[in-house]
Design a protein that fits this description.
The structure holds 3 protein chains of 3 kinds. Chain B is mainly alpha-helical. In chain B, about 65% of the residues lie in helices and about 0% in strands. Classes of the chains: A alpha/beta, B mainly alpha, C mainly alpha.
Chain lengths: ~350, ~350, ~300
C-alpha cells in the first residue's frame, strides 16, 4: 500500500523555563493510504505533540525540531515556510480536537467557520462554498443544516459541535485526518456516534486517519494499526490484532492489563506503578524500565532498538533479543495471547482469531 | 527500523529488581504557594526594581526631612524661590543654584547671599522643598495605606460574608452593592469632602466610602468559586466547621487575589488624594501632601518649575512602582500562568 | 433579556433617587448658607432672599419641591450667577466638555487597541515592552501632571499649541484631549493585550490555524473580535475616569466646560451648581454603564441569544 506520510527519526524539544524538555525522542512511523493508525499512550507520552508537530501547530518560539523528517507525499513538512504550510493545513491534512466545547470560535456563525477552509483552499464563490458547507453539515448528520448555518457554537450540544468540527476538517477532502482524542470529552453514547460517523466518512472519502487516544476500547473499535508511545518514543507498533493479542513490550502489557474488561471483573484492576519519565532529563536506556517488572540490566544502559516480530509488528524491548531470557507476560496477557495464532501461547482451539 | 541484531553479553540480560518507590520519586521540588510566587516575582525585573524604588521612597519619606539641614515649616522669606543646589553636583553645571531672573541666567544663591544648600530648592515662602516633598510623601503614603487597609478589611468581610453564607443574606447584600456600585466614586468623594472638615481623616473616609466595593465583589466571587469545590466539600464531610473551612481552606486560596487587589488600591488612593488636593478639596495649608505641593507648583510653573518637578517625580514614581509591583504580583499569583 | 433590562432600569432609578436625596441632605447639613456669607444684607433683606429661594420653608417641604423639580429636569437656580438656571448653566458649558471627552476617549481607545494588539502579537519583544511601558506610564502618571507637562513643553516652551482659554477653536481642544486620552489609552492597551493573549492560546485559534488560516487572518478575523467584545465592559469605568480627569484638565487649560465650572463652584460654595453638576455626572455615568451593559448583550452572541440574565 502507498505510504502517504512518513515520520522519520523525529526529535522535538520544548524550551521551558525549567530547561529543555525532550518531548519527542526519535519517532518513526508510516501512515498508509486509507488506513487508521491509532497512537496510544498515557498523558505526556508525546502522542499529541507528535501530531501537532505534523501540523506544525506548536508554538514556534518555544518548540524546536531537533532532528528528523516528516515526509508528506515526499515533501518534508519540517522544512516548509509558514506560507507553504498554510496551504497544506486544512486542505491536505486537517485536524479534529479534543474539546468541542472550546474548539469553535464563539463569535462566528458556524456556517462561516465551515466555509472558511473551502474559500481559503479552493477557488470557489461564496455561494458554492455555502452550498458545500450545508452539504457537509448534512454529511456529518446535522439535522436541518440550512437553518443552522447562521447559528453560533453555543447553540449546539457537545456532540453536535464535534460534528461541526469534523465537517470543518473534512471540508477539503483531506488526505490525512488527525483526530486528537476526539471523543474524550464526550458522553459515552455520543462517543459511539462520533466514532461511527468517523468510520463511515472514512469509507466515503477514503482519507487516512491518525487517531490519538488513551482509550484502548476506542482503539479496538476504529484502528487498523496501533502505535504505542511511551516517554516520547514509539515502543511498539503493529496491527490491532497484533497489539491486542500478541503484545511484546512490557509497557503494552501494562496498558492492556490496566484496561478493565468483563473477564477481569472479580480481580483487582492492574495499575502501572510509578509515574511517566521526566522528559527534562530522560532516563538512560529503556524509559519504561524503572516501572517495569521485567527490567534487565541492559534496559538501564542502552536504548533498545526495534525488534521485528512480524512484517507489520515491531517492538522496542530487549526482551525480544535472541539472547534474552524467555519471560512470561502477566496472566491477563497470556490469556489474550492464547487466542492469537502467531503467539507462543496459542491454543488454537477455541474461537480462533478475533 | 534497525533490525541488525548485535551480540550482547549474556550478563546484560540479568533481571534487575527496580525499587518502584524509586520511580515514584518526584523530580520537581515541591514548592509552597508562597515559595512559588516568590520564585516567579524574583524573575520579574520590573517588580523587583519597583520594590527597591518603593523602599527607597518610603525610607526617604521618613528620613528625608531629618537629613535635610532645613525643616519643612520654617519660612525664610529672604531665601524664597531658590532653585535646587546640591554640593558636589554643582561643579558639573547642574543643581548649581542658577536660575532665570527677568530672562537672564544668574546664580540666585549668590545674588541673594545664601550660603547654604537647598537640595530641591525653596518655595515662595522660602521653605525647604526637600523636607516639604518628603513630608508630603509621608502624608500621601499614610492616606494611601490607611485607605487600602480599610478597603481591604471592609471589602473582605462584606464580600466574604455575602459569598460564604449565600442565599438570602447574599441577595440582600448584593442588591445594596448593586445600588452603591452605580454611584460614581468622584461624586460621593466630592460630596463627602464638602461636608466634612478637610483633613487626612476626611480624605480617607471619602476614598474608602466606595473603595471597598471593588474588593468585596472580587472576594465574593472567589469565595463562591471555592466554597463549592471538592476539597471544601470534602473537609465539610469530615466535620470541619465554618471557622476552619474559612481559615484553612478558603482564605489561603483567595489571599493572592486580596493582596493583588490591595496593591492596586494603594496607587488609586494616592492618585485620588493628589487629585482632590489639586482641585482644592484636599488638605489645607500648612498640611502638605504630594497633591497640594503639585498644586502649589502648578501655579508658579512658568517661573519656578522646580517646585512642581520634585513632587511630580515622586508621585509618578510611586504610582509606577505600585502598578508594576501589582502587575508582577498578579502574574506571580495567577495560577493560569503556571507552566 | 427584557426582564433583565427592566430590573436594571429600576435599579438605575433607585440609585439616582439615593444620590439626589443624599446630595440634598448633605447640602442641608452644611454649616451656614451661601447667602449668610454675603455680608451686606440686612436681616430683612436676608429673609427676603431666603423666601425667594424657598430656604425659609421646613426641610421636608424643600426636599419634596426639590425632588419634584428634579423630575422635571429643573436643577434649581444658581445663587451666584444672578439666579441663572443651573440646568442652563450646565447645558451652556456642555460643548467643550463633550468635545474633549469624546476626542480623548476615541483617541485613547483607538491607540490603546493598536498598542495592545501589537504587544500581544509580538509578545516578549521590544514592541511588547514598549507598549507595556507606555501603558504603565499612562496609568501611573496622574492626568494633571501629564497635562501640566504637555502644556509647559508643547504650548509654553515650543508654542506648538494654544496654552489654553479655548480661543483657537479646535486647536485648543487638542492638548486637553491628548491629556485625557492617556487613561483610556493605557487601560485599553493592557486590556486588549491580556484578552488577545488569552484568545490566541484558545482552542478555536488552534483550529483556525489547522484550517490553514494565515497569521493575519487569525489575528483579525478570529482573535480580534473576541478580544474586543469584553473591552466594552471597561467603557463605564473609563467614562468615570474621563469625568474625573476633565475636572482638572479643564482647570489647567482654562476650558469653559462643566468641570471647570464645578471646581469653581466648589471653591465659592455655590451649592446649587455643586448639587446640579453632581446629579448631572451621576446621571451621565449611570446611563453610560447601563448602555454599555445593554450594548455588551447585543454584540456578544453568547449573551444575545441565550437571553442571558447574568
Amino acid at each position: 500500500m502507498e505510504k502517504i506520510l512518513e515520520v522519520k527519526d523525529l526529535e522535538l524539544s520544548f524550551h521551558t523555563f525549567a530547561g529543555e524538555v525532550k518531548a519527542i525522542r526519535g519517532v518513526n512511523f508510516d501512515l498508509l493510504k486509507g488506513e487508521t493508525l491509532a497512537i496510544v499512550g498515557e498523558s505526556g507520552s508525546g502522542k499529541s505533540v507528535t501530531t501537532k508537530s505534523i501540523m506544525r501547530l506548536l508554538p514556534e518560539h518555544s518548540s524546536e525540531f531537533k532532528n528528523g523528517q516528516i515526509l508528506f507525499n515526499g515533501k518534508d513538512l519540517t522544512k516548509l515556510t509558514d506560507r507553504e504550510m498554510q496551504k497544506i493545513r486544512g486542505k491536505d491534512i486537517s485536524m479534529i480536537f479534543q474539546d468541542p466545547m472550546t474548539s469553535l470560535n464563539p463569535t462566528m456563525p458556524i456556517g462561516k467557520q465551515i466555509m472558511e477552509p473551502i474559500l481559503k483552499h479552493r477557488n470557489v464563490s461564496k455561494s458554492v462554498a455555502h452550498k458545500e458547507a450545508v452539504d457537509l453539515l448534512r454529511l456529518v448528520g446535522m439535522p436541518k443544516p440550512e437553518a443552522r448555518m447562521k447559528q453560533y457554537p453555543h447553540q449546539f450540544s457537545g456532540g453536535q459541535r464535534q460534528r461541526i468540527v469534523i465537517a470543518i476538517a473534512l471540508a477539503c477532502n483531506p488526505q490525512v485526518l488527525i483526530a486528537d482524542e476526539p471523543t474524550t470529552a464526550l458522553d459515552v453514547t455520543i462517543q459511539a456516534q462520533i466514532l461511527e460517523l468517523m468510520k463511515d466518512l472514512q469509507k466515503k472519502i477514503n482519507t487516512s486517519i491518525i487517531f490519538i487516544t488513551h482509550d484502548l476500547g476506542v482503539v479496538a473499535n476504529v484502528a487498523d494499526r496501533v502505535a504505542v508511545m511511551y516517554g516520547g518514543k514509539i515502543v511498539e507498533i503493529g496491527t490491532v490484532d497484533e497489539i491486542f493479542y500478541n503484545p511484546q513490550h512490557p509497557y503494552t502489557w501494562g496498558l492492556l492489563s490496566s484496561m478493565p474488561s468483563l473477564d477481569t471483573a472479580e480481580e483487582k484492576l492492574y495499575a502501572i506503578p510509578g509515574t511517566p519519565p521526566d522528559l527534562l532529563s530522560p532516563p538512560k536506556g529503556d524509559a519504561f524500565a524503572l516501572r517495569s517488572d521485567y527490567a534487565m540490566k541492559i534496559d538501564l544502559e542502552e536504548v533498545p532498538p526495534f525488534f521485528k516480530v512480524s512484517d507489520t509488528h515491531y517492538a522496542a524491548t530487549w526482551l525480544l533479543h535472541p539472547d534474552a531470557p524467555q519471560v512470561d507476560p502477566p496472566l491477563a496477557i497470556r490469556e489474550r495471547m492464547k487466542k492469537y495464532p502467531g503467539s507462543r501461547y496459542y491454543e488454537g482451539t477455541e474461537g480462533g482469531t478475533y | 527500523m534497525s533490525l541488525d541484531i548485535k551480540k550482547i553479553p549474556a550478563e546484560s540480560f540479568e533481571r534487575v529488581q527496580i525499587d518502584s518507590s524509586h520511580a515514584e520519586r518526584i523530580t520537581k521540588p515541591s514548592l509552597s504557594f508562597w515559595q512559588d510566587a516568590w520564585l516567579r516575582i524574583r524573575k520579574n525585573k520590573a517588580a523587583i526594581a519597583s520594590i527597591f524604588i518603593l523602599l527607597f521612597i518610603i525610607i526617604m519619606a521618613f528620613v528625608g526631612p531629618m537629613v535635610s539641614p532645613h525643616d519643612a515649616e520654617t519660612q525664610t522669606i529672604t531665601h524664597a524661590n531658590l532653585p535646587p543646589k546640591v554640593p558636589g553636583l554643582e561643579k558639573l553645571g547642574i543643581f548649581d543654584g542658577v536660575g532665570t531672573l527677568a530672562g537672564k541666567e544668574v546664580d540666585l544663591y549668590e545674588m541673594k547671599k545664601v550660603d547654604t544648600y537647598y537640595w530641591f530648592g525653596t518655595d515662595g515662602l522660602g521653605r525647604d522643598m526637600f523636607s516639604r516633598a518628603w513630608e508630603g510623601t509621608q502624608i500621601s503614603l499614610l492616606i494611601a495605606f490607611v485607605a487600602a487597609v480599610i478597603d481591604m478589611v471592609i471589602g473582605v468581610a462584606y464580600g466574604g460574608i455575602s459569598g460564604y453564607y449565600g442565599g438570602r443574606t447574599d441577595d440582600i447584600m448584593q442588591r445594596i452593592v448593586e445600588i452603591l456600585y452605580g454611584i460614581p466614586t468622584l461624586v460621593i468623594v466630592i460630596l463627602m469632602l464638602l461636608v466634612m472638615e478637610p483633613g487626612v481623616i476626611a480624605i480617607v473616609i471619602a476614598i474608602t466610602l466606595t473603595g471597598w466595593i471593588g474588593m468585596s465583589r472580587i472576594v465574593r466571587g472567589q469565595v463562591l468559586k471555592f466554597k463549592n469545590q471538592e476539597f471544601v466539600l470534602a473537609s465539610r464531610t469530615l466535620g470541619a466547621g465554618n471557622g476552619r473551612i474559612i481559615s484553612k481552606h478558603i482564605l489561603p486560596n483567595i489571599l493572592g487575589v486580596i493582596i493583588i487587589n490591595t496593591m492596586f488600591t494603594i496607587p488609586t488612593a494616592i492618585f485620588f488624594e493628589a487629585f482632590l488636593s489639586f482641585i482644592g478639596l484636599g488638605l489645607q495649608a500648612p498640611d502638605a501632601s504630594l497633591g497640594t505641593l503639585i498644586n502649589d507648583g502648578y501655579k508658579v510653573i512658568r517661573f519656578q518649575p522646580h517646585i512642581l518637578l520634585y513632587p511630580s517625580i515622586i508621585l509618578s514614581l510611586l504610582m509606577i512602582a505600585f502598578n508594576l509591583l501589582g502587575d508582577g504580583l498578579r502574574d506571580a499569583f495567577d495560577p493560569k500562568m503556571k507552566d | 433579556m427584557t426582564k433583565y433590562m427592566i430590573r436594571r432600569i429600576v435599579y438605575m432609578f433607585i440609585t439616582l433617587f439615593l444620590i439626589a436625596s443624599a446630595t440634598f441632605f448633605l447640602m442641608k447639613a452644611l454649616p451656614g448658607s451661601p447667602i449668610s456669607s454675603a455680608p451686606k444684607l440686612s436681616p430683612s433683606q436676608l429673609a427676603m432672599v431666603e423666601a425667594k429661594y424657598g430656604l425659609d420653608e421646613p426641610v421636608p417641604v424643600q426636599y419634596a419641591k426639590y425632588m419634584l423639580n428634579l423630575a422635571k429636569g429643573d436643577l434649581g437656580n444658581s445663587f451666584q450667577f444672578k439666579n441663572a438656571s443651573v440646568t442652563e448653566l450646565i447645558m451652556n458649558r456642555l460643548g467643550p466638555s463633550v468635545l474633549i471627552g469624546t476626542q480623548g476617549l476615541i483617541l485613547g481607545v483607538a491607540i490603546g487597541i493598536l498598542l495592545g494588539m501589537i504587544a500581544a502579537l509580538r509578545q516578549n519583544t521590544v514592541w511588547d515592552y514598549g507598549s507595556t511601558l507606555i501603558a504603565i506610564i499612562g496609568i501611573s502618571i496622574p492626568s494633571f501632571v501629564f497635562a501640566t507637562l504637555l502644556q509647559y513643553w508643547l504650548a509654553v516652551e515650543w508654542g506648538l499649541f494654544p496654552v489654553g482659554l479655548w480661543k483657537d477653536g479646535w486647536m485648543s481642544s487638542i492638548l486637553p484631549s491628548v491629556a485625557l486620552a492617556m487613561g483610556p489609552l493605557a487601560t485599553a492597551s493592557r486590556f486588549i493585550r491580556t484578552e488577545m493573549i488569552e484568545v490566541l492560546s484558545s482552542d478555536y485559534i488552534t483550529l483556525a490555524k489547522s484550517k490553514g488560516a494565515s497569521g493575519f487572518e487569525i489575528a483579525f478575523k478570529h482573535a480580534f473580535r473576541n478580544a474586543l467584545i469584553p473591552l466594552v465592559t471597561v467603557l463605564g469605568p473609563l467614562a468615570a475616569g474621563l469625568v474625573t480627569g476633565s475636572l482638572v484638565i479643564e482647570q489647567i487649560f482654562a476650558i469653559p466646560g462643566i468641570g471647570e465650572q464645578f471646581v469653581k463652584a466648589i471653591t465659592s460654595n455655590d451649592f446649587s451648581i455643586i448639587m446640579g453638576t453632581t446629579l448631572f455626572y451621576s446621571v451621565l455615568l449611570i446611563v453610560i454603564i447601563f448602555v454599555v451593559d445593554v450594548l455588551y448583550g447585543i454584540i456578544d452572541p453568547r449573551i444575545r441569544l441565550s437571553g442571558g440574565s447574568k
